[in-house]
């Protein structure tokens, strides 16, 4: 077996500058949601005016949360985002319980949440990538079952492509992500300028309804914010890849301050554009708001909307996979995941075993299908761990007050973010006390069952040596110098 003494590499390289960091945030935040179904916030707010306020405030809340992560990213300069912050803040507090939150975070994100998200997103990519060509290829004549098979095949092909890109090199990822980021922003601008044109010719009836029909009761407001903030998720993505960002203490805060307001502006103005030609009733009933808007406004250029969705979802899946493989990498370095997941390719300097594992897990979810219920747990899990990360920030301020902080947010920012995260972790359970939340608790308990023998007691079966050897040979993967030392 190739030993650490024979081959060592310095680990991941810092190859991503400010523009690439901005594009990572944009890639993860802009998925299919703003094109397909930005209706829940409107349904629960009840009026166009209140809905636009909801979207704007959600952008501000997302920025506050992202600024908390900006501070964490500068004092804990490691990839892995929430995982890295939890392990840094709590592992010394108790021998058993201290490292457990970080392990549960990695267990949920790596084994279920991110690969399931990638599977759903890549299937959305498949559906919308073939939509503009359905007439030309005669797909309209396929049965529902055959069309479903075709979408699944295209999705598997798309998953193979994003996995190949992330296996190949960081530079290839950056180049393709930048291209797709530009394309998806262009698609957003097409919608916005279409709305501006509609306003210019006098289509203001829907917007002039203002706050008519607003729902100001606490339950509806809560659900409106819940759904709006779900659309903004992804603002922490740049901190997942901290170790590959050049000058992270500068570029992480800057990328967040630039990207999140850009997304907020795009989201608010896209909703305004939709409202110029679609009444609130039409938007709420629509299965794909962007497509309905395109048919009414863009005419023969309506194909730009499904192409925009395809670009948005491909780039989103690509970046989510890129980020979660770095979480695998860091968790493995800490001994909380299989050791080979911290190995990187000798020449390409990518965490090849971690990328391959995420590709296989996402493929399994695609083949299993019917995982939408699982994805509904995403907001619950994500905001739970966002809150835990903010708690880690407050803990580090108390336990490490003298650590140099190149960037520091005012105290009210993490307090507000923590309150929002608690709120968003509780709302779905209260609003819909579904059995699926028992699955969430069960999966966390299964994580504890894995953690106790294999992490806390460090039980390592002898056959793992053969697995490690096989992985090293198959992926030409070697330990990093930090790990091997």
Explained architecture:
It is a single chain. This protein is an all-alpha fold. Helices cover about 70% and strands about 0% of the residues. It has 21 helices and two strands. The protein has helices at about 20-30, 35, 40-45, 50-75, 80-90, 100-130, 135, 145-170, 170-200, 220-230, 250-275, 280-285, 290-295, 305-335, 350-370, 370-375, 380-400, 410-430, 435-455, 465-475, 480-485, and strands spanning about 345, 475-480. Strands 1-2 form a two-stranded antiparallel ribbon. Helix 1 runs parallel beside helix 11 (about 250-275) and helix 8 packs across helix 14 (about 305-335). The longest helix has about 30 residues, at about 100-130. The chain is globular, with a radius of gyration of 23 Å.
Sketch the topology as an H/E string, one letter per element: HHHHHHHHHHHHHHEHHHHHHEH
Helix content: 55-70%
Distance between the termini: 17 Å
Poorly predicted regions are: 1-7
- Computed over alpha carbons, the radius of gyration is 23 Å
Strand order of the largest sheet: 1-2
The secondary-structure class comes to: mainly alpha
- Overall geometry comes to globular
The number of helices is 21
Keywords:
single chain; 485 residues; mainly alpha; two-stranded antiparallel ribbon; 2 strands; globular; disordered N terminus
In brief:
By secondary structure, this protein is mainly α. It has helices at 18-29, 33-36, 40-45, 48-75, 82-90, 100-130, 134-137, 144-168, 170-200, 218-231, 248-277, 280-285, 289-297, 304-333, 352-368, 372-375, 378-399, 412-431, 436-456, 464-475, 481-484; strands at 344-345, 477-478.
